[in-house]
């Protein structure tokens, strides 16, 4: 079971952003691998970093509260030594740990070695579980769904800035999204690149935010979509709907929507790959003499020939009446019908007399025996 990020930081689920920050700094100072040489300290530090990375960002925290780890997987970087946003980055943490050993250098814009970051971020992929009826899975078709997802704000077109204005280059990092800090310690001088605290790594600053989306550039809406279901899908089939995930940040591409299918059971049919199974009950006379019976298939009623002398449990086949092969709807499996012979528990007098007469003629020992049966006295003289 995945660890709870709130428990990992030792805070309540309704903890404020400042409380989360304080808890993180205290734990990070305790488990930083440059300070704590115990085995497992580095892994613990990575876990703490990941928990703070999610809980310190309001949008990611909201998704985590709603969906758990599945809601933020892929939305943030993998666990490790990440930039630490408004907590001041790795450099501030290093300063806290070694504050008794020397002063800190002054933050400065990144030099020529610092690559300018792209402001665009791809949107998150989304998952939807969709239940289909048995015949919907067999023949496919269109299915209407509704999904909540993030779309670009129509007012600011995803920029986050008030219409008529635009974001400006961050003066602290000169648009790189990073600042470089130098630290002197008894062990030598250290330089560390950290997220710019002024623009939170975006490289730009919005002076006048869009009033519709409060500068985020996106809004959550519930959208209606039509999804094409191919013929022959089965339980666990995954369909990808390109571009229907969350909209990207600052004009970045949208994520994708993944639809996972679950197929309902049917009262008459059972599926095995591309074959369909069902049962047909016939009378003992129909099984003995043979007949033509109407059977149900996914295509509708079909006539099935029951050969004379059909035994209970015999499987008859209707070719090409099964499930289409996924990706090749022309090729279909078969419909396999198991014949169940019904033996009556009670007979009318005339029917019983006819059967006993037949049994007597064939020399079968039925009822109370040949001499004591119903027709024993009648046929004894012939």
UniProtKB/TrEMBL annotation:
**Cofactor annotation comment:** Binds 2 Zn(2+) ions per monomer.
Gene Ontology molecular function = ATP binding; heat shock protein binding; unfolded protein binding; zinc ion binding
Q: Where is the J domain?
A: 4-68
Q: Which residues bind Zn(2+) 2?
A: 170, 173, 196, 199
Keyword annotations from UniProtKB, A to Z: Chaperone, Cytoplasm, DNA replication, Metal-binding, Repeat, Stress response, Zinc, Zinc-finger
Residues involved in Zn(2+) 1 binding? 153, 156, 210, 213
GO CC, one annotated term: cytoplasm
Q: CR-type domain spans which residues?
A: 140-222
Question: Where, subcellularly, is it found?
Answer: Cytoplasm
**Which GO annotations describe the biological process of this protein?**
DNA replication; protein refolding; response to heat
**CR-type zinc finger positions in the chain?**
140-222
Subunit structure as annotated in this protein's UniProt entry: Homodimer.
The family annotation for this protein states: Belongs to the DnaJ family.
Supply the name of the protein: Chaperone protein DnaJ
Instruction: Provide the species name.
Output: Rubidibacter lacunae KORDI 51-2
């Amino acid at each position: 079971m995945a660890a709870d990020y709130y428990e990992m930081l030792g805070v309540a689920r309704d903890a404020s952003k400042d409380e989360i920050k304080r808890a993180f700094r205290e734990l990070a100072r305790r488990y930083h691998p440059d300070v704590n040489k115990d085995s497992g300290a580095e892994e613990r530090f990575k876990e703490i970093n990941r928990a703070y990375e999610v809980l310190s960002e309001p949008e990611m925290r909201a998704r985590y509260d709603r969906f758990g780890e599945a809601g933020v997987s892929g939305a943030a970087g993998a666990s490790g030594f990440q930039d630490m946003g408004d907590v001041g980055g790795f450099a501030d943490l290093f300063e806290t740990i070694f504050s008794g050993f020397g002063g800190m250098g002054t933050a400065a814009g990144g030099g020529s070695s610092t690559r300018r970051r792209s402001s665009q971020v791809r949107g998150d992929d989304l998952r939807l579980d969709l239940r289909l009826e048995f015949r919907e899975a067999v023949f496919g078709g269109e299915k209407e769904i509704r999904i909540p997802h993030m779309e670009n704000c129509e007012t600011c077109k995803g920029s986050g800035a008030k219409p008529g204005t635009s974001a400006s280059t961050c003066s602290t990092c000169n648009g790189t999204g990073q600042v470089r800090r130098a630290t002197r310690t008894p062990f030598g001088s250290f330089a560390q690149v950290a997220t710019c605290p002024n623009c939170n790594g975006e490289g730009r600053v919005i002076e006048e935010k869009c009033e519709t989306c409060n500068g985020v550039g996106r809004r959550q809406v519930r959208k209606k979509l039509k999804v094409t279901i191919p013929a022959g899908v089965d339980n666990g089939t995954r369909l990808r709907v390109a571009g229907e995930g969350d909209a990207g940040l600052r004009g970045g591409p949208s994520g994708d929507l993944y639809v996972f299918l679950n197929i309902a059971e049917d009262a008459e049919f059972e599926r095995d790959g591309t074959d369909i199974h069902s049962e047909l009950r016939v009378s003992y006379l129909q099984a003995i003499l043979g007949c033509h019976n109407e059977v149900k298939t996914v295509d509708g009623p079909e006539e099935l020939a029951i050969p004379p002398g059909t035994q209970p449990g015999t499987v008859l086949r209707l070719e090409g009446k099964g499930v289409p092969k996924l990706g090749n709807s022309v090729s279909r499996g078969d419909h396999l019908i198991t014949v169940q012979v019904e033996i009556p528990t009670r007979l009318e007098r005339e029917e019983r007399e006819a059967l006993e007469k037949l049994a007597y003629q064939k020399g079968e020992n039925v009822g109370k025996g040949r001499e004591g049966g119903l027709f024993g006295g009648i046929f004894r003289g012939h």
